[in-house]
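Please describe our next protein:
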Amino acid sequence: MMASFFDQFASPLYLGIPLIAIAITLPWVLYPTPSSRWINSRLITVQGWLINRFTNQLMLPLNMGGHKWALLLVSLMVFLITINMLGLLPYTFTPTTQLSLNMGFAVPLWLATVIIGMRNQPTVALGHLLPEGTPIPLIPVLIIIETISLFIRPLALGVRLTANLTAGHLLIQLIATAVFVLLPMMPTVAILTATVLLLLTLLEIAVAMIQAYVFVLLLSLYLQENV
Protein backbone atom coordinates (compact mmCIF):
# COMPACT_ATOMS: atom_id res chain seq x y z
CA MET A 1 0.00 0.00 0.00
CA MET A 2 2.76 2.44 0.95
CA ALA A 3 4.66 1.70 -2.24
CA SER A 4 1.60 2.59 -4.32
CA PHE A 5 1.44 6.02 -2.71
CA PHE A 6 4.87 6.84 -4.09
CA ASP A 7 4.28 5.32 -7.52
CA GLN A 8 2.80 8.62 -8.67
CA PHE A 9 6.25 10.22 -8.36
CA ALA A 10 7.93 7.69 -10.65
CA SER A 11 8.66 8.93 -14.15
CA PRO A 12 6.20 7.18 -16.51
CA LEU A 13 7.59 4.90 -19.18
CA TYR A 14 6.20 3.86 -22.55
CA LEU A 15 8.04 1.05 -24.37
CA GLY A 16 10.97 1.73 -22.04
CA ILE A 17 11.09 5.42 -23.01
CA PRO A 18 10.70 7.99 -20.18
CA LEU A 19 7.83 10.36 -20.91
CA ILE A 20 9.11 13.17 -18.70
CA ALA A 21 10.24 15.03 -21.82
CA ILE A 22 6.65 15.12 -23.10
CA ALA A 23 5.42 16.21 -19.67
CA ILE A 24 7.89 19.10 -19.76
CA THR A 25 7.20 20.26 -23.31
CA LEU A 26 3.41 19.85 -23.26
CA PRO A 27 2.66 23.01 -21.21
CA TRP A 28 4.05 25.26 -23.93
CA VAL A 29 1.42 23.95 -26.35
CA LEU A 30 -1.38 25.14 -24.07
CA TYR A 31 -0.46 28.82 -24.14
CA PRO A 32 -2.36 31.02 -26.61
CA THR A 33 -0.05 32.68 -29.12
CA PRO A 34 -0.50 36.40 -29.86
CA SER A 35 -1.81 37.17 -33.32
CA SER A 36 -0.94 40.00 -35.70
CA ARG A 37 -4.34 41.60 -35.19
CA TRP A 38 -4.68 44.96 -33.49
CA ILE A 39 -7.33 43.61 -31.11
CA ASN A 40 -6.54 40.36 -29.31
CA SER A 41 -8.89 37.93 -27.62
CA ARG A 42 -9.81 38.32 -23.97
CA LEU A 43 -7.62 35.37 -22.97
CA ILE A 44 -4.51 36.82 -24.60
CA THR A 45 -5.28 40.24 -23.12
CA VAL A 46 -5.59 38.82 -19.59
CA GLN A 47 -2.46 36.72 -20.08
CA GLY A 48 -0.48 39.75 -21.23
CA TRP A 49 -1.77 41.90 -18.36
CA LEU A 50 -0.82 39.31 -15.73
CA ILE A 51 2.66 38.81 -17.20
CA ASN A 52 3.24 42.58 -17.36
CA ARG A 53 2.16 43.05 -13.75
CA PHE A 54 4.40 40.25 -12.53
CA THR A 55 7.34 41.50 -14.59
CA ASN A 56 7.03 45.00 -13.18
CA GLN A 57 6.86 43.69 -9.61
CA LEU A 58 9.77 41.30 -10.09
CA MET A 59 12.08 43.81 -11.80
CA LEU A 60 11.28 46.75 -9.50
CA PRO A 61 14.16 46.21 -7.01
CA LEU A 62 16.68 45.37 -9.76
CA ASN A 63 18.80 47.86 -11.69
CA MET A 64 18.91 48.03 -15.47
CA GLY A 65 21.49 45.24 -15.68
CA GLY A 66 19.11 42.81 -14.00
CA HIS A 67 16.27 43.64 -16.41
CA LYS A 68 17.97 41.45 -19.00
CA TRP A 69 16.77 38.47 -16.94
CA ALA A 70 13.10 39.48 -17.15
CA LEU A 71 12.21 37.15 -20.04
CA LEU A 72 13.99 34.17 -18.49
CA LEU A 73 12.53 34.59 -15.00
CA VAL A 74 8.96 35.26 -16.15
CA SER A 75 9.06 32.33 -18.58
CA LEU A 76 10.36 30.08 -15.81
CA MET A 77 7.59 31.13 -13.43
CA VAL A 78 4.84 30.61 -16.01
CA PHE A 79 6.35 27.23 -16.88
CA LEU A 80 6.53 26.09 -13.24
CA ILE A 81 3.00 27.27 -12.49
CA THR A 82 1.64 25.40 -15.50
CA ILE A 83 3.46 22.16 -14.65
CA ASN A 84 2.38 22.37 -10.99
CA MET A 85 -1.26 23.02 -11.90
CA LEU A 86 -1.37 20.23 -14.49
CA GLY A 87 0.08 17.87 -11.89
CA LEU A 88 -3.03 18.34 -9.74
CA LEU A 89 -5.20 16.72 -12.40
CA PRO A 90 -6.03 13.02 -11.92
CA TYR A 91 -3.76 10.44 -13.58
CA THR A 92 -1.09 13.00 -14.43
CA PHE A 93 2.61 13.17 -13.68
CA THR A 94 4.21 16.23 -12.05
CA PRO A 95 7.82 16.67 -13.23
CA THR A 96 8.54 19.22 -10.49
CA THR A 97 8.22 16.49 -7.86
CA GLN A 98 11.55 15.20 -9.19
CA LEU A 99 14.49 16.72 -7.32
CA SER A 100 16.76 16.20 -10.32
CA LEU A 101 14.60 18.45 -12.51
CA ASN A 102 14.34 21.19 -9.88
CA MET A 103 18.08 21.09 -9.26
CA GLY A 104 18.56 21.30 -13.01
CA PHE A 105 16.70 24.61 -12.90
CA ALA A 106 18.23 25.90 -9.66
CA VAL A 107 21.94 25.14 -10.03
CA PRO A 108 22.63 26.75 -13.45
CA LEU A 109 20.61 29.88 -12.67
CA TRP A 110 22.18 30.29 -9.23
CA LEU A 111 25.63 29.70 -10.70
CA ALA A 112 24.93 32.32 -13.38
CA THR A 113 24.13 34.94 -10.72
CA VAL A 114 27.36 34.11 -8.85
CA ILE A 115 29.45 34.31 -12.02
CA ILE A 116 27.86 37.66 -12.93
CA GLY A 117 28.66 39.02 -9.49
CA MET A 118 32.26 37.79 -9.59
CA ARG A 119 32.76 39.26 -13.06
CA ASN A 120 31.07 42.65 -12.62
CA GLN A 121 31.81 43.48 -8.98
CA PRO A 122 34.14 40.91 -7.40
CA THR A 123 34.84 43.04 -4.31
CA VAL A 124 31.15 43.35 -3.44
CA ALA A 125 30.47 39.69 -4.24
CA LEU A 126 33.27 38.52 -1.96
CA GLY A 127 32.25 41.08 0.65
CA HIS A 128 29.02 39.15 1.25
CA LEU A 129 31.13 36.37 2.76
CA LEU A 130 32.31 38.62 5.60
CA PRO A 131 29.86 40.99 7.36
CA GLU A 132 31.19 44.42 8.22
CA GLY A 133 32.48 44.88 11.76
CA THR A 134 33.23 41.20 12.38
CA PRO A 135 35.71 40.56 15.21
CA ILE A 136 39.07 39.29 13.97
CA PRO A 137 38.92 35.88 15.78
CA LEU A 138 35.55 35.13 14.14
CA ILE A 139 36.61 35.98 10.58
CA PRO A 140 37.67 32.42 9.50
CA VAL A 141 34.58 30.85 11.04
CA LEU A 142 32.18 33.36 9.44
CA ILE A 143 33.82 32.99 6.03
CA ILE A 144 33.32 29.22 6.20
CA ILE A 145 29.71 29.59 7.36
CA GLU A 146 28.84 32.15 4.67
CA THR A 147 30.51 30.04 1.99
CA ILE A 148 28.49 26.99 3.05
CA SER A 149 25.28 29.04 3.07
CA LEU A 150 26.12 30.31 -0.41
CA PHE A 151 26.49 26.80 -1.81
CA ILE A 152 23.34 25.60 -0.01
CA ARG A 153 21.18 28.13 -1.87
CA PRO A 154 20.52 26.02 -5.01
CA LEU A 155 19.90 22.93 -2.87
CA ALA A 156 17.36 24.90 -0.81
CA LEU A 157 15.63 26.09 -4.00
CA GLY A 158 15.26 22.59 -5.40
CA VAL A 159 14.37 20.85 -2.14
CA ARG A 160 11.77 23.48 -1.18
CA LEU A 161 9.87 23.08 -4.45
CA THR A 162 10.14 19.28 -4.43
CA ALA A 163 9.17 18.83 -0.78
CA ASN A 164 6.13 21.12 -0.89
CA LEU A 165 4.67 19.52 -4.02
CA THR A 166 5.46 15.97 -2.89
CA ALA A 167 3.89 16.50 0.54
CA GLY A 168 0.76 18.00 -1.00
CA HIS A 169 0.30 15.15 -3.45
CA LEU A 170 0.79 12.57 -0.72
CA LEU A 171 -1.77 14.25 1.54
CA ILE A 172 -4.32 14.41 -1.27
CA GLN A 173 -3.85 10.72 -2.09
CA LEU A 174 -4.00 9.66 1.57
CA ILE A 175 -7.18 11.61 2.27
CA ALA A 176 -8.79 10.45 -0.99
CA THR A 177 -8.01 6.85 -0.04
CA ALA A 178 -9.55 7.43 3.38
CA VAL A 179 -12.73 8.78 1.74
CA PHE A 180 -13.17 5.64 -0.38
CA VAL A 181 -12.49 3.36 2.59
CA LEU A 182 -14.89 5.20 4.94
CA LEU A 183 -17.71 5.70 2.43
CA PRO A 184 -19.38 2.24 2.81
CA MET A 185 -18.79 2.06 6.58
CA MET A 186 -19.29 5.63 7.87
CA PRO A 187 -20.85 7.87 5.21
CA THR A 188 -21.03 10.91 7.48
CA VAL A 189 -17.34 10.75 8.32
CA ALA A 190 -16.58 10.14 4.65
CA ILE A 191 -18.46 13.32 3.67
CA LEU A 192 -16.56 15.33 6.26
CA THR A 193 -13.31 13.85 5.02
CA ALA A 194 -14.27 14.71 1.44
CA THR A 195 -14.83 18.31 2.56
CA VAL A 196 -11.34 18.35 4.02
CA LEU A 197 -10.07 16.92 0.73
CA LEU A 198 -11.75 19.73 -1.21
CA LEU A 199 -10.21 22.37 1.05
CA LEU A 200 -6.81 20.69 0.76
CA THR A 201 -7.10 20.68 -3.03
CA LEU A 202 -7.79 24.42 -3.01
CA LEU A 203 -4.78 24.86 -0.74
CA GLU A 204 -2.62 22.84 -3.10
CA ILE A 205 -3.68 25.05 -6.02
CA ALA A 206 -2.45 28.04 -4.04
CA VAL A 207 0.76 26.19 -3.09
CA ALA A 208 1.40 25.29 -6.74
CA MET A 209 1.33 28.97 -7.69
CA ILE A 210 3.09 30.29 -4.60
CA GLN A 211 6.00 27.86 -4.81
CA ALA A 212 6.66 28.78 -8.45
CA TYR A 213 6.58 32.46 -7.46
CA VAL A 214 8.90 31.88 -4.48
CA PHE A 215 11.36 29.95 -6.66
CA VAL A 216 11.65 32.82 -9.14
CA LEU A 217 11.55 35.50 -6.43
CA LEU A 218 14.53 33.96 -4.60
CA LEU A 219 16.45 33.78 -7.88
CA SER A 220 15.75 37.48 -8.44
CA LEU A 221 17.02 38.24 -4.91
CA TYR A 222 20.21 36.31 -5.60
CA LEU A 223 20.53 38.27 -8.84
CA GLN A 224 19.96 41.55 -6.99
CA GLU A 225 23.01 40.87 -4.80
CA ASN A 226 25.27 40.44 -7.83
CA VAL A 227 24.21 43.13 -10.32
The chain has one domain: 7-226. The two ends are 51 Å apart (CA to CA). The CA atoms of residues 32 and 44 lie 7 Å apart. The first strand starts at residue 13 and ends at 14.
